[in-house]
């Protein structure tokens, strides 16, 4: 093991608690799983999770190379990343709000809505789901700050810092993938149980509002 045993178990506890804490990543996976419907929901949710988790390796690499420290200490660079992340979150939120306001065919009754499930949005490609996940993670300055502050606490100074950082990011990758793909499966299962369109629109509206609020808060901090 690249990391000393006592450091690894401490990291495992900390990163597990972080993984299951609801946040932007959780909502994005659930939104995309719901957007994909019965046919593509699980795929879209899992691919979004892959994109999010690939971003962890980018943050781990930047942390190990010290670029995260430079980014935080350089006001204009940090501000640029912060605004990029804020704008992206607001864009995701507005997309969810548009989805919430979309309507199915006017002649569809409740039974046809629950069984045929008219799509609220056109199916998206795997690349779109992956890109959304990756950008939401990479453009989140809070993730960079977290990796800069957390990872060094669990790295043995006597070892290779870069290899240890990637190893810890890989552990986070596995945990986050398992949790987020499980959430995507729950969303798809709930659709199979015939959750009404009104409930789906409400969830999209709540998700969109949350993204917009977080983006606005990030921009004004």
Automatic annotation (TrEMBL):
Record GO terms (molecular function): amino acid transmembrane transporter activity
A GO CC term attached to the entry: plasma membrane
TM annotation in the entry: 6-29, 50-69, 75-94, 167-190, 202-220
Pfam families, sorted: LysE
Localization (cell): Cell membrane
Domain of life, source organism: Bacteria
Keyword vocabulary terms for this entry: Cell membrane, Membrane, Transmembrane, Transmembrane helix
Main location: membrane
Name listed for the protein in its UniProt record: Homoserine/homoserine lactone efflux protein
Membrane topology: Multi-pass membrane protein
Claim: Disulfide bond is one of the keywords in the record: no
